Amino acid sequence: MKNVLVVLGLLAGLTGCSTSTVFIVRHAEKVSEADTSSLTTAGFERVQALADRLEDERISLILTTPYRRTQQTAAPLARQLNVPIESYPGQPIGAVVERIQRAKGKNTLVVGHSNTILDIVKGLGAVPTQSQIEPGDHDNLFVVTRQKGLFGKSIRLREETYGQPTAP
Q: Which segment of the chain is annotated as a signal peptide (predicted)?
């Protein structure tokens, strides 16, 4: 009987275990500063590079702000994976962080803006090396892996770039 209880306890603990990876990017290059601005040719090339980079990452949730440029950044991957794009409000950051945290065990792509992506990374418990995203900087890929197990949780951050630098 005691062994059965130990096994049941271990199984209960294992059901609470999960690993999820969150990929956070800024939208690709845009035509102008207008909120409704579309991506440039270089931006469309970059989003295809993003889709190629993430196609094997088992992403099952894609979150963007309601702006065209963030949705265009996520669209190629969403089509490739047949995953719908869900919209989140650009502010407050807590809303998207909460949504990500509810998606336990799911890998997620989040597309945001230069003034939000670092705060999203921090909201997930990671500490980026950058203190700000420069206006022309569109190639950052922040990879936050959240692991919850029997002995607590761990958060790892990997910072990468994707796509080729393009001339303006």
A: none
Q: What is the mean pLDDT of residues 57-81?
A: 97
Sequence letter at residue 96: V
β partners of residue 39: 30
Which residues fall within 8 angstroms of residue 83, CB to CB, at 6 or more apart?
Answer: 59, 60, 61, 62, 77
Q: What's the pLDDT score for residue 18?
A: 84
Q: Output the six-digit token pair for 95.
A: 């809303």
| Pairing of β 140-149 and β 85-87 | unpaired
CA 68 to chain centre: 17
Query: Rounded CA gap, 47 and 138, in Å?
Result: 10
Confidence band (pLDDT; 50, 70, 90) for 1? low
Q: CATH assignment of 18-161?
A: 3.40.50.1240
Joined tokens for residue 85: 């794009």
**If residue 19 lies in a helix (H) or strand (E), which one and from where to where?**
strand 18-26
Strand order in the sheet with 107-112: 85-87, 59-64, 107-112, 18-26, 140-149, 152-161
Structure tokens at 124: 């997930």
CB hemisphere CA count around 50 (13 angstroms): 33
Under the phi-then-psi rule, with left for phi > 0, alpha for psi from -120 to 50, and beta for the rest, what region is 11? alpha
